[in-house]
Design brief:
heterodimer; A: 95 residues; 3 helices; elongated; B: five-stranded antiparallel beta sheet; 12 strands; globular
Chain lengths: 95, 215
């Protein structure tokens, strides 16, 4: 149960981090390359909006990244202690 | 045979040289009164339509709006008929980079006063060749001796940097530093919003506050 919850949390954080990173990069381009990004998104991602989103994502991005590293390390330590092997996809070998 | 042809060509070229004075390329100043200056190449090109190439011969700087008489200056007129000032000022771009440049130009105040400012005028709108525009309070322009620069680090502004004139909007975010200025309008419309200001940027543009307008 404990292992299961840890896995779910890890997975959720990973996916959230992926989404936040993608948006972070996209809005970064929206700031510096607005002459390309704005027409590509039919004016939806303007430079000002990119700035707003990008600046507001800085802290969530850092938190998620730290959590991702933290839970990754926890998992590694847990595996080392229990002697369980980590699978590349993050699932436990029992599955 | 080839040697004869090439030496004849050199001879012809030497004969054609009329020994007139030629202007040498200016060299960028990188140090001003002990202050390190950035290079002209340290700017990031982020204008709305890319660099504008303005023909000096056909260029006119127009002063309109709430003035006693509309003025139209040639590039030469602006530089020769007004006092030239220089000042090292830092431009801070909203994108995170900054450059400290030695600017040289004429005061907007001098241009406006020559046209005769209507007492009702309280705002100055600047228009650029590429359709860009921005506005600043007249008081700010006058009190801070705001200039339009034609030289940077001792070199005439290249087209990429805003030739013929760029506004040196000291203590304002970079989007207020309009390049390729063609028209200056004096108005009493304090609500005028320029290109970026109408897209969510602060109308004041002061460095001490966020450049994004509160939603």
């Amino acid at each position: 149960m404990e292992e299961n919850s840890l896995r779910i949390i890890k997975k959720t954080i990973s996916w959230l981090l992926l989404v936040v990173t993608a948006v972070y990069i996209m809005t970064g381009f929206g700031i510096t390359e607005y002459r390309i990004v704005e027409p590509l998104t039919s004016g939806l991602l303007s430079k000002a909006l990119s700035f707003r989103v990008h600046l507001n994502l800085e802290i969530p991005f850092m938190i998620l990244l730290l959590l991702h590293i933290f839970f990754g390390s926890i998992d590694r330590i847990y595996c080392r202690l229990t002697g369980r092997k980590r699978r590349e996809d993050g699932r436990s070998p029992s599955q | 045979m080839l040697a004869i042809i090439s030496s004849s060509l050199i001879g012809i070229r030497l004969l054609m040289n009329d020994n007139t004075d030629e202007t040498l390329d200016s060299v960028e100043i990188r140090d001003y009164q002990g202050q390190k200056l950035s290079s002209m190449n340290d700017f990031r090109e982020n204008s709305i339509q890319g660099p504008q190439y303005i023909d000096e011969e056909n260029y006119r700087l127009v002063i309109t709006g709430l003035v006693n008489r509309n003025m139209s200056y040639t590039y030469e007129d602006v530089i020769t008929e007004h006092n030239i000032y220089q000042k090292a000022v830092t431009l801070y771009c909203v994108e995170g980079w900054d450059v400290t440049i030695l600017w040289e130009g004429v005061l907007v105040r001098d241009l406006a006063y020559k046209a005769g400012v209507d007492p009702k005028a309280n705002t100055v709108i600047f228009y650029a060749h590429d359709g860009y525009s921005t506005s600043l309070p007249l008081d700010y322009i006058v009190e801070n001796n705001i200039m339009i620069a034609y030289r940077m680090n001792g070199v005439i502004l290249p087209p990429e940097r805003g030739f013929p004139f760029q506004l040196v909007a000291e203590s304002k975010w970079g989007y207020k530093w309009i390049k390729w200025i063609t028209r200056i309008e004096l108005t009493d419309n304090t609500n005028y919003r320029g290109f970026w200001e109408s897209r969510g940027y602060s109308n004041d543009g002061g460095l001490e506050e966020s450049f994004l307008e509160e939603p």
